[in-house]
Write a structure and sequence with these properties.
2 copies of one chain form a homodimer. The first copy, chain A, has helices at 40-50, 55-58, 60-65, 75-78, 80-88, and strands spanning 2-6, 31-37, 95-104, 113-124, 129-138, 143-146. By secondary structure, the first copy, chain A, is α+β, with helices and mostly antiparallel strands. The first copy, chain A, has a domain at 25-38 and 74-146: Hotdog Thioesterase (Thiol Ester Dehydrase, Chain A), CATH 3.10.129.10. In chain A, strands 1, 2, 3, 4, 5 and 6 form a 6-stranded antiparallel beta sheet that branches. The radius of gyration of chain A is 17 Å and the shape is elongated. Chains A and B meet through helix 1, helix 2, helix 4, helix 5 and strand 3 of A and helix 1, helix 2, helix 4, helix 5 and strand 3 of B.
Chain lengths: 147, 147
């Protein structure tokens, strides 16, 4: 689950369609999604950026001998799909990201496609806050990240 | 708060000091930390990787006119310090990251130093699970991410 607060500021003139949307323009059930494959280059870039070079993510031989059998995408990299959807689409521009709960329920393997979905589950118009359900699902239908 | 499960597998021979630690080697109060500055290059790399090009992160002019006055590091990038500490140090090698709760309590600005701390708060030896307190604090002492 995730909490965000869409703010109506600032709205530069002449950028039609890119302004921050008011909380009144959203409804429970609004939903956006994105599909993505985290390939080797993405996983290595995230390892560099985060400093997390855990062998399960970056070492084929180690991963093969582990219970997973294959290299696993960093959970936090998979979860970065949420920041993209929330920061860019729903609620998008002007959002203040207040929090995110993450449960890593199944591994996402390097090179496999996943789909992230963000859906509005509650709107508190008085406090100008929205609650979003956030899920990443693997191609086999298994939920990998639930928040 | 974060949950992890250190697994005693696999332990390649001849890699002294790099093997996965058993859960019996950890104690409540064990603590690791790291200091980091997220500079412009790191924020742009994360924007590329996640697809989150929200102006608050990447556009100086927009950020200046916003309530924050400066560009803000993606919350999820700041939180990547946890995956580094958890994946590499505590519990480190062999860890399965089960979940992470994140509250973004204050903005982290591009170029400012922060400190991430991970501390063991509970150990369930029967289920082989550890609970960790995870915090990122700004140089002015304000907590920025609490989990």
């Amino acid at each position: 689950m995730s909490h965000g607060s869409p703010l109506p500021e600032p709205r530069p003139a002449g950028e039609k369609g890119r302004r921050a949307r008011s909380i009144d323009e959203f409804a429970v059930g609004d939903r956006v999604s994105v599909r993505r494959v985290f390939d080797d280059a993405a996983v290595r870039a995230f390892a560099e950026l985060s400093g997390d070079f855990n062998e399960l993510h970056v070492d084929d031989g180690y991963a093969r001998r582990s219970r997973f059998g294959r290299r696993v995408v960093h959970g936090m990299l998979t979860a970065s799909l949420f920041t993209r959807l929330i920061g860019m689409e729903l609620p998008g521009r002007g959002t203040i990201y207040l929090g995110q709960q993450l449960r890593f329920t199944a591994p996402v393997f390097v090179g496999d496609e996943v789909e992230a979905v963000v859906e509005v589950t509650a709107i508190d118009r008085a406090r100008r806050r929205m609650t979003l359900a956030t899920t990443v699902t693997r191609a086999d239908g298994k939920p990998a990240v639930v928040g």
